[in-house]
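Practice set, problem 2.
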Amino acid sequence: MEKETKGSAIALLPIAVFLVIFLGSGFITGDFYSMPAIVGFLIALLVAFVQDRKHNFNEKIHIIAQGVGEDNIITMSLIFLVAGGFSGAVTAAGGAESTVNLGLSVLPSNIAVVGLFLIGCFISISMGTSMGTIAALAPIAVNISEKTSFPIAICIGAVVCGAMFGDNLSMISDTTIAAVKTQGCEMKDKFRENFLIVLPAAILTIIAFFFFTRNSSFTLTESLPYNIWKVLPYLVVLVGALIGFNVFAVLITGTVLSLIVGVATDMFPLSDIFKVIAQGADGSGGIMSMYDITVISIIVACIVSMTREMGGIHFILHCIKTRIRNKRGGELGIAILALLVDMCTANNTVAIVMAGPIAKDISQEFEISPRRSASILDMFTSVGQGLIPYGAQLLSAATLTGLTPFDIIPYCFYPILMAISGLVFILFIRNRKA
């Protein structure tokens, strides 16, 4: 009985194999995205199948099918696809461009870099993608840098900070969806809890950027046309989710509204409405852009099911329980787990999907509310993603501006302050159980 309670360390071998393969290929090639994550996870699943000698093949299939068939996994996968459809439709309708231009049109010239951060926050929370936010604002950051006396590093740093704000909070962000569904809480509850925790970090980030750039100003010479109707679908989704409407209903409403706006403004013909939902404006967005993370979520659910069956999850929980005695320690355990897994995978969504089941078990053991555990899980994977030099966000920002990630990291104030704010809340501010 004692052995069953302690679990088995060797049961974690599949996860260790994935990390060795993924990190090894990254160090060898210098590119942590050279090997698709799905390949590494499939190899890890194969290792789990070979390692488990207690069950025959059909029994193993039944075990992983039970894991994949859980309500949260199915719901999460469907939300990924619906969110992808909304993103494809609203981008094709010109919503992203109009949102950027609207923000820049009302940007006071004496707080240019602060404005970049605030616009990045709004765009990322509306679009649900940090990568899309960086791609949209990086050229603007370069332009502002050229017109002021401040280095491009601090300008693009403001963009990255804003991108990570929405990546952690947006209702249609894949990280938020994964955190909510793995922990079993409502989207609106997680947003409110999470927003309260990161608000001090956002305010301090604004103060930091204002202090460093308070003597600068700039003037945009190019035209910045925008259409408020194209911004409307983002606002509908954001407000609807905050009010508490069903996430599927909100996203479907936003998608339909985006299609109406897109056709009415001649952004695409009526005959292309299904195409933009599936592929977006350029053929690489929409539902298709969510295929990878959906399949990865399913494969990871299979691996977690096999690992749990062999005692790996029990082993991790036993190790945590021997070092943690209370709710505060449980929350710290979730934070550390989230950060470490993200540093290993360089993908905060994958990290949440991997660490989510363990975090849920920890939260249940120490009576941590689901919204609190979802917030901590999402926050600390975002902390890692916003600071690791081999993460997609910093690599993209560096590539678009001709810098290196190490040039940008000193100005990534928000991820650093988010970690500090999260720790303060864990250590000093209690949460309710419900």
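Problem 2, part (b): a different protein.
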Amino acid sequence: MQRIWQSLDVVISLLVSLTVGILGMLNLSNGSVLAGATLATLTVLAAGTLHSRFQMNGLLTLARRHFVEPPAADRLLRSSTSGSDAELTGATEIGIIGVTLNRTLRNHTAALAQCLRRGGTVRVAVIDPDGAVAGEAARRSTTPDAAEIFAHRVRPTLDLLAELAAIPAGRIEVRLLGFVPAFGLLTVDDSVHVDVYSHTFGGPDASMTLRADRDHAWYEHFRAEFEQIWASGTPSLCQKDRFSTLAG
């Protein structure tokens, strides 16, 4: 019924044309009636053409909005959830880079353990709790004079990683950063989750997810960023009952 209503101009034109044709063949109408009916048919066709043109203009506007013009930021960015919405089920390679990663690791402890038990690889990089970088992290936060807070937050992260390292399977590597990364990264097989760190801002950070099949260029960009940051980190010292042997 909806398709018939949308094509009403064509239906009316066909009915009028058929009626005019039959009347003309049977000689049941004079020339003025036929001329009037013909004009009416042309009017219906013109109205249908005008309606179709409006529809086409609407489609072109929609296409420009979605495929030509840059998308609205709200379609790309969302409030950070510290990686809690990242899907790690079945992952075989997981990489995480951040400042302290306190909440992020807690959110994914079970998934990281499962990855290791499957024989997967987990790589984690955080700031060095014993270095001057804790002061830099504090200056970029809302507590500029509390470097010890950041050092305190990193140590439970390292303790948790030590527990994961005790799993007799897979491979876990930990590196310590001498600088504060500009963004947090969570790489999972063919996707990258990016948290854009704010400067002295108490609200939630902006976050986005990139996929290899959909966002190839930027996915590759942040994958390369991960490797660059990772390469600049210092392998965590091997300690008895703490971390498994880590390659430099």
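Answer key, part (b): The two ends are 70 Å apart (CA to CA). The helical segments are 2-6, 8-25, 31-68, 102-107, 109-117, 133-139, 147-165, 216-232.
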